[in-house]
Amino acid sequence: MAKLIVRLDPVATLREAGKSAVPDPAAAAILAELGGADGIAVHLREDRRFIKDRDLRVLRKVVHTRFVFKMAPTSEMLGMALNIKPDIVILLPEMREENSPRGGLDLMVHGSSAAETIDNLVNSGIPVGIFIEPDPDQLKLAHQCSANLVEINTSAYCESTTSAKRKQVLNRIVDTVKLAYRLKIDVQAGGSIGFNTIGAFERLKEIGAFTIGHNIIARAVLIGMQEAVREMRRHIRAL
Asked: Facing residues of 6 across strands?
């Protein structure tokens, strides 16, 4: 069964919106793990608008499953990763105008910086993945960068408003996942996945984990974090 990684950036977004100390991402992480989460992910942005440096340090101590650090391939973030030593790093683009990345890291543009970052992290014993678009060409470039895994961006599928568009994007996702399997690269999926879209990936047994943030946190507002995580795990178990 695929694993569930809960992304906690939306918890920090709520905290910053209220200019308060709550809700605390660390407390949310504990509840998510009690609900059955297989991992916790956060994205430290260059401007620290949501997740803060302190959050990383506290989460590194309290997370007992897998701690996933999402970051841009910059020297500053590399230093943070080497200091925090997460269980895995996922490289993604730094989009200042967006609350969360809507696109994958373009390796045609950022391939050299990604490869250098990966080399430094892997030499320090930290596995590295790359958040990419569902594109076999990007997958091949990730393979050339010696990435340990890829996380395929599913936002275009989950946010599509027509069945034709969804079918087109899903076909690209399938092609990318199948190629990753042939190249022996581990695959995860993430980006706008919710309770009503997770079922679309039932045939893709090659996907080892789903990273889900907003939709779980939104559900948790209504029914609590533990139950929201349990509910999503039931959906994943049914795939």
From this structure: 40, 212
Domain boundaries, the chain: 3-237
* Burial (0-12, 13-18, 19+ Cβ within 10 Å), 102: middle
User: Regarding the domain delimited by 3-237, which CATH topology (the fold level of the hierarchy) does it fall under?
Assistant: TIM Barrel (3.20.20)
- Pair of tokens at residue 221: 């507002």
| Inter-CA distances, 199 with 73, 123, 145, 155, 234, Å | 32, 38, 31, 14, 11
Nearest to 39 by CA among 104, 99, 90: 90
In terms of DSSP H, where are the helices of 125-200? 136-144, 155-158, 163-182
pLDDT tens by residue, 122-141:
999 999 999 999 999 999 99
pTM, full prediction: 0.96
